[in-house]
Amino acid sequence: MPSSRSTIGDFSILPISIPPLSSYPKPATHHLYLRRNAPKIPTPDDPRSLFIINVPADSTHLHFRALFTALLGAGRFESVTFEDDRKTASQALTDLLPAQAARLASHASKKRKREDEEAQHAREEETARLPEPWSRPLRRSGGSAVVVLADERSIEKALKAVGKAARSGRYPVWGAGVPEQNRTLGSSWVKAHVRLTYPDKAAVEAAVDAFFTVYNRREKEAAELAKRLRNEPDEDGFVTVTRGGGRTAPAKREEAEEARRKMVEKADKKREELSNFYRFQMRERKKEEQAELVKKFEEDRRRVDAMREKRGKFRPES
């Protein structure tokens, strides 16, 4: 039965047909809400992006590719980014690595390493990641996603196709065209999770060894960077007080006193500049007031001279 409404606010409503499952042997209708993407922080892809609310819990990249292929034809869909996408494995790995390296790296210019070193480090970090325990993620109920299409014209065609589908009652079938292995959930999905939760022992040992290799390399880089930064003032004139002689050794007292002295000198200089600025404002204001008084005096003097001249020409009748 066609939907009674095709829009709500700025959103277009797209009903999709959910086929019956063994756990719920009845067809159902799910509603997606779409509009042009307009984030607070603009990106170059905004003109060809759609913001979608109420994505199904089993959504995947292949599901949305099949959905927009059914609406627009092949070659229009480019990518989808889900609201609850977890951090990438590389980001998760970075969170476990020494924080000191990340903090110190922000204070120094990064030099591009040789390509062979970069490739070696990438291989080490890839090996340091443990296998994913889930064969596919589930989305948060009522969550959102951003779909990027080929161009801005595709966005217009997609919104028209959504309105046409809602009015005609011919709803796209969710999961149509997606391979079976990418649609399977239920008990087989849980069994796969149990199997992936216990990876091969050799793979775990290799990942742990690689992780500590990366960890030690990052610690070494942090120590070298800290050594270079010692006693080097930054762009504001402050000195970064770093730990020296090992991870647990405190900063030298002389370094701390020197940093404090420079900070006090900078504050005094700033205060003096501010005071001079106000003094300059006062001088300028006094000059303006004096100029105004002189101007008024000259006007009054000209007015008095005019009155005297007029009185001198007056002759009473005899």
Automatic annotation (TrEMBL):
InterPro entries: RRM_Rrp7, RRP7, RRP7_C
Sequence ranges assigned to domain Rrp7 RRM-like N-terminal in this UniProt record: 10-187
Signal peptide start and end residues: none
Region (Disordered) residue spans: 104-137, 243-267
Single GO biological process annotation from the record: ribosomal small subunit assembly
Biased composition (Basic and acidic residues): 114-129, 251-267
Residue span, Ribosomal RNA-processing protein 7 C-terminal domain: 196-317
A Pfam family per the record: RRP7
GO cellular component terms, A-Z: CURI complex; UTP-C complex
Domain of life: Eukaryota
Family under the similarity heading: Belongs to the RRP7 family.
Official protein name in the record: Ribosomal RNA-processing protein 7
